[in-house]
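Note to self: keep these together.
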Amino acid sequence: MIIELGHYALVLALATAIIVSFVPAIGAARRDQAMMDIGPLGSVLLFALVAFSFGVLTYAHVVSDFSVQNVWENSHSLVPLLYKYSGVWGNHEGSMMLWLLILALFSALVAIFGRNLPDTLKANVLSVQAWISVAFIFFILLTSNPFARLYPAPAEGKDLNPVLQDVGLAIHPPLLYLGYVGFSVCFSFAVAALLEGRIDAAWARWVRPWTLAAWTFLTLGIAMGSYWAYYELGWGGWWFWDPVENASFMPWLAGTALLHSALVMEKREALKIWTVLLAILTFSLSLMGTFLVRSGVLTSVHAFASDPTRGIFILCILLIFIGGALSLFAFRAPLLTAGGLFAPISREGALVVNNLILTVACGTVLTGTLYPLLLETLTGDKISVGPPFFNMTFGLLMAPLLVIVPFGPMLAWKRGDMLGALQRLYVAAGLAFVAALVFFYAEHGGPVLSVLGLAAGLFLVFGAVADLWYRAGVGKVAPGIAWRRLRGLPRSAFGTALAHAGLGISVLGIVAVSTFQTEHVTEMKQGQTVEAGGYSLRFDGMKPAKGPNYTEERGHFTIARGGVEVADVWSSKRIYVAQRMPTTEAGILTFGLSQLYVSLGDATENGGMVVRIWWKPFILCIWGGALVMGLGGFVSLSDRRLRVGAPNRRKKAVAAGAMEPAE
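Structure:
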C-alpha cells in the first residue's frame, strides 16, 4: 500500500504544480494578491508531496521490496545499506525523481527566502518553476514510472550496476543535480523579468545568490565525478572529454560567465540583455545535458540505457522551454535599455573579456560534443571527436583567461588603471615564475612550455593573495590597522579570492600531472620489482577474498624507497555475484599531494599479471583546487549582502581609513 501512496503523492504533486503554474502568474498580471499568494504555499506543498514520493521509493529500496520493478532492476538483498540508498538515484527513473525533488526544493526555497522580492516577480518566478515541474512530472508518470509493480514479486533483485556501488556515486549525483537544477531558478528569474519587462540592478542582486549556489554545487559535483572515474574505472585518468562529462561541464562554463555578468549588472546596471540571455542559456545547457544522458544518442560509461520514447519526450521539453524562452527573449530584448557605460580598461571590461572567453570555450565544447551526432544524423558517417581536439581548442582559449583573472579585482569600476594593476601584480607574477622554475627543476625537467602553465596556476594563487594584501593596505599602514581592514572586508571578497586561488591550484595540478606523470605497463610475476616515481613496487602475489556481494582476486604490492619499505597497497579484480560483471579496483597510495596508482590487467599464460603503474605528481591539487573553489562559493554565500532578505547589520566605524569595494 505504501508504494501506491508514493505514486498517488506524485499524481497530487502534478495537480499542485499545474495550479501553481497558472494561478500566481494570472494573479501577477491582474495584481491580485490572493492569487499571487498561492505561489509560495503551493510551492512548499509541491516539495512536501515530491519529498514524500521520493521517500517512499527510498523505503522500497532499503527494505528490498522486489515487487517494485525499479528496486528489482537496481538492487539486491546483499547490497550494503549505503548502496541501497544510492541505488535510488543510480538508475534512470530514480535519478529523474532526484531531479524533480531538487527542482521542488529550489522552488520551496524561493518561496521561503524570497520574502523581499516584489510580489509580482516572485509569483512569476514560482509559476515558471512550476511549469518545469509539470513537464518533468508528466515525463516521470508517462515514461519513467518508478513505482511500477511486478506480479508475482521476484525473490531476488538483479543488483545495482557494480561500478555504481561506490561511496563517490552516493555523493556525486546529488551534488551535480543541485548545480544542474539550481540554475532553473536563474532561468525562472530571467523569464519572469522578461514577462514583466523590467530588469535592473535589483534583479541581478536577487539572481546572484542562486547563481552562486548552483555554481558551487556544480563545481563540487563535477570534481566528485572526476575523482570517482579516476579511482573506480581503473583507467588512471581524471578527465576524458567524455560526452556526458561535457554535458555537465558546459553549464559550469556558462554559469561561471553568468556569475560574473550578474556582478557587472548589479554594480553598474550594464550587460542587462547579455545577463538575461546567459541565464536562459545556462539552464538550457543543463536541460540539454539531461537529454543527452537519457536519449540514447550517446555511448558513454555515464549514460543511462534508455528507449527512444524517453528521448523524444525530453527533446520536446527541451524545445518548449528553450524555444519558448528564447522567443520571449527575442520579443522583449529590443525593449530593454542597454544599461551603464564603462571604459574598456575597467573591472567591467575585464569581466566582459571573461564572459567572451568562457562562452566561446563553452561553444567549442558544445561543437565537439554535438558535431559527431549531427554528422551521423545527416550523412550516416561516424566520426569521433576526442581529447586532441578539446585539449588544443579549449586549452588555447583558456590560457589568456588564466592571465587576465588576477587583473580583474585590481581594476576600478567604470575606469581602471592598467599600469597601477601591473604595479600591484608584478611581484606576484615574478614569484609565480620563479616558483614554476623551481618546480620544473625539482621534477627533473620536461616540456619547456610546462613552465608557463605552472606559472599561470601559481599566478592565480599569488594574485588572489595580492588582492587581499592590497585591500588591507599591508605595508602601507600599521599592522594593527591592516589587520582590522582585513577583518573588515566583506566575506564575498574572501570568497572571490578563494575561488580564484582554487582555480590556480587546479591548473597547477593539471599541468603537473599532464607533464610529469609516468606510466609503466608490464607483466609481473611474484617477487618482481618495478620502479615508479622514485619508489620500488614489489609484486607479492594474488590472494582471493570475498565481499558482501562479490568475490575478488587481490594483488598485493610492497612499496619501498631507498631500500626501506614505506607502505603497501592492494589492487583487485572483482566479480559481482548477481550480474557476473567484472570490475577493477585500483590500488592508490598517496604521498603528500601525489599518488602512486596500480591497476591489475589480465593474467598471462605463464603465471604473471599485466600491471599498469602510474606515478601522478600533485594530482590531488586538481580536486583540492575544486574544493577550495567550492569553499569560496560558500564563504561568499555567507555574506549577508548575498543572502536574499537579510537586513544589513550596522557596524561601528573602524578607524582604519576607507577600504576598497569588495568586488
